[in-house]
Amino acid sequence: MLNNQLHPLSRHIRSEEGYSLVELLVVMAIIVLLGTIAVPQLLKYLDGAKQDTARAQIESLTSTLDLFKLDVGRYPTQEEGLDALVTAPSGITGWNGPYVKRKDMLLDPWKRTYRYKRPGEHGDYDLSSFGADDREGGDGSNRDVTSW
Questions:
Q1: How close are the terminal C-alpha atoms of the chain, in Å?
Q2: Measured between alpha carbons, how far is 39 from 50 in angstroms, rounded to an integer?
Q3: How far apart are CA 131 and CA 98, in angstroms?
Q4: What is the rounded distance in angstroms from the CA atom of residue 66 to the CA atom of residue 75?
Q5: Going residue by residue through the chain (148 aa), what tens digit of pLDDT does each one get?
Q6: Among candidate residues 42, 122, 125, 48, the one with its CA nearest the CA of residue 85
Q7: CA distances from 52 to 112, 113, 141 (A)
Q8: pTM for this one?
């Protein structure tokens, strides 16, 4: 009977040995493999989320610019820019702002100021972000986000 069954003390010592180096390396390899598959997908998702955020912020700023126009009778000039939504331009009447609470609300998801052009080529004004690369055109996270 002793030959078929391990002594209780030897069983206790064996259970404290832990994992072998090979077992740890296999687990590490699996984690690395999963990481190489999952991380690019996660980055694509984050890039898409920034594009969606920029689109939503441009829509919000468009509504805010319309409120500015209702109060003042016109959109901010090119010189006044989007700062006119935060602080009243000098010599303006009817300004009932601030229309946005903080100046950092005028930044796109890549922490750059939205481009404002008045008069615009596509309407009364053009509002845009050039995406992650900050250059006109592009695909994916570098794609432009515009108000038109």
A1: 85
A2: 17
A3: 27
A4: 7
A5: 555 555 555 555 555 567 888 888 999 999 988 888 877 777 777 777 889 999 999 999 999 999 999 999 999 999 999 999 999 999 899 999 899 999 999 999 999 999 999 999 999 999 999 988 888 888 877 889 999 8
A6: 125
A7: 16, 17, 10
A8: 0.68
- Alpha-carbon span 128 to 19, nearest angstrom: 56
Supply the CATH classification number for the domain 20-146: 3.30.700.10
Tokens matching residue 26: 């296999």
Tracing tokens 């750059």 back to the chain, one arrives at 112
Q: How far apart are CA 8 and CA 118, in angstroms?
A: 85
Tokens 């080529």 identify what position? 121
CB 144 within 8 A of CB 56: no
